[in-house]
Amino acid sequence: MMVLAWQYEMMGRPLRLIDIDEKAKLAEFMGMDRVLSLRIGANAEALRADPALAYSYWDQLAVEMTNHDTGIDLGANMDGVLLEWAKKSDLSQVLQEVGVTMDVYVPVTADPLAVAGGIQALESAEKIFPESRRVLVLNKAAGNFDSYAATPEFAKIANMRSRGLYVVVMEECLSEAWTDFERLKLPPWAVVSMSAKTVAEKTGLGILAARRAVGDYAAWLKKLQQVLGPLVRYQG
Q1: What is the torsional sign of CA 10, 11, 14, 18?
Q2: Which of 28, 82, 170, 222 is the most exposed place for a label (fewest CB within 10 A)?
Q3: What pLDDT, on a 0 to 100 scale, did the predictor assign at position 27?
């Protein structure tokens, strides 16, 4: 989400960023002044039992989406209840009436539960938002997907691709300071603008390791931007 937001901002189309779960992770990285946090007012377990608890909170999403170029971070395990809200609220029709297009990005790691959950989210999004552009992001942070090639799950993905699904690969970042950048809540543009000396001071790495860390992170980020770039919508 941060990389997409960065690309839109460089195009002169800054996104209205929103996160909806109680963890507010996007706001932690981007800053509370740049992210609207719609804290849901109920924990995830309560929402699964009664999704309507959050509907009044999420109605504001429709307002934001019709007024701004918007990027929404659903957080973990929130896609099901949010999609149910969208279905009940006929959000697809509302957005079509005002000319808003939607991209649905679903990242998954090489984990059976993650892959199955991602497929379910994409199938639901296809039904609820048939006009949307759907993107499956294969995040290789937890390993590659070679062992999935002949599975029923990837057969489903192949079928969805025939119906317009985009599939992109997010390579693993091999930077020696990756976990430090996460711990320090540094967005991508902050990392690539840091000097090796600053990285060394913040992470405790030696100066040479810090130089490698920044270089490897920058190379990973450039590759990810190249992958996502063709999917970014330009004005007009």
Answers
A1: negative
A2: 222
A3: 87
Give the contacts of 39 (CB within 8 A, at least 6 positions apart).
Answer: 20, 21, 22, 24, 57
Residues belonging to the chain:
236
Residue 182 region by backbone torsions, left for phi larger than 0, else alpha for psi between -120 and 50, else beta: alpha
The one-letter code for the residue type at 101 is T
SS3 of residue 86 by DSSP = helix
User: pTM for this one?
Assistant: 0.89
Q: What 8-state DSSP symbol labels residue 206? A: -
Tally of CA atoms within 13 A in the half-sphere of 65 that contains its CB: 23
Beta strand pairing call for 70-73 and 103-109: unpaired
Instruction: Sort 149 into a burial class: Cβ within 10 Å, 0-12 / 13-18 / 19+.
Output: exposed
Residue matched to tokens 């992170």: 217
**Sequence letter at residue 113:** L
Residue with tokens 């990027």: 71
Distance CA 51, CA 127 (A): 19
- Residue 103 sits at the vertex; the CA angle it makes with 80 and 37, to the nearest 5 degrees, is 60
- Per-residue pLDDT reduced to its tens digit, 109-150: 999 999 999 999 999 999 999 999 999 999 999 899 988 888
d(CA 218, CA 222): 6
